[in-house]
Amino acid sequence: MLNVVELDKNYGKRKILEQVSFQIQRGEVVGLVGENGAGKSTLLTILATITKPTKGAIELNNVEYSKKLDDIRKMIGYVPQEISVWEEFTVEQNMLFFEKLSWKRHTKEECRQLCLDMQLSSWKEKVKDLSGGMMRKLNIAISLLNDPSLILLDEPTVGIDMKSKNEIGKYLVRLAKEQGKIILYTSHDMNEVITFCDRVYAIGQDSFYINLLQSNGVKVEKL
Ligand SMILES: Nc1ncnc2c1ncn2[C@@H]1O[C@H](COP(=O)(O)OP(=O)(O)OP(=O)(O)O)[C@@H](O)[C@H]1O
Ligand SMILES: [Mg+2]
């Protein structure tokens, strides 16, 4: 379980997150929505241990972030909003490089299968020759190398075609339901959120997203 308690984040005098508390159980796929600048990426980078909160506590599977950061990092897969892969290298070289950095060992075939699960069949192609959507698929595949129990995805499907988006969404839901992963992801694509998320958190002052999602029968809470 992911347990977030009374989290604050300030940048200088600006309060980005204020008294944010929520819980996500194993097996849940939860969306995080809100307008540009609302603080979605800030929250995900805090959960990914990249940014420190100003205040508050976080626990993942009963391990406290403030006490056992190394253990926490082994349990997290994170897809940043900006694509971060080696563009001069092939898909294969990227996967094998990040496999070495991962806590879990995989054979080359397993690395390749992760890409295929993301609908990415290019293997010998240089990343700089891939489309933006294909690079994103590679980014998602890399985040799963750790076999993480918490998967944080920051707008993972921007630029991905509808068919692949649907297949990736279904795959993430399967990871949650069959393997008990906790999945939290941001998206500006409400169709995707409505289709794949069990429930949604809306961040920021605006009630636009809350109204839109509720009118589509989605369980949504304000953070
Ligand atoms: N390192 C930083 N220093 C100062 N301000 C920052 C920093 N990172 C983010 N901010 C500010 O915090 C606010 C929230 O940014 P964040 O990137 O979390 O929003 P977001 O909801 O992810 O937006 P988007 O939908 O555009 O991705 C913004 O006003 C941003 O300018
Ligand atoms: Mg963002």
Automatic annotation (TrEMBL):
GO molecular function: ATP binding; ATP hydrolysis activity
Pfam family, one: ABC_tran
All copies of domain ABC transporter, residue ranges: 2-222
Domain of life: Bacteria
SUPFAM superfamilies according to UniProt: P-loop containing nucleoside triphosphate hydrolases
InterPro entries the record matches: AAA+_ATPase (IPR003593), ABC_transporter-like_ATP-bd (IPR003439), ABC_transporter-like_CS (IPR017871), ABC_transporter_ATP-binding (IPR050763), P-loop_NTPase (IPR027417)
Keywords recorded for this protein, A-Z: ATP-binding, Nucleotide-binding, Transport
Family to which this protein belongs: Belongs to the ABC transporter superfamily.
PANTHER family per record: ABC TRANSPORTER ATP-BINDING PROTEIN, ABC TRANSPORTER ATP-BINDING PROTEIN NATA
Name of the molecule in the record: ABC transporter ATP-binding protein
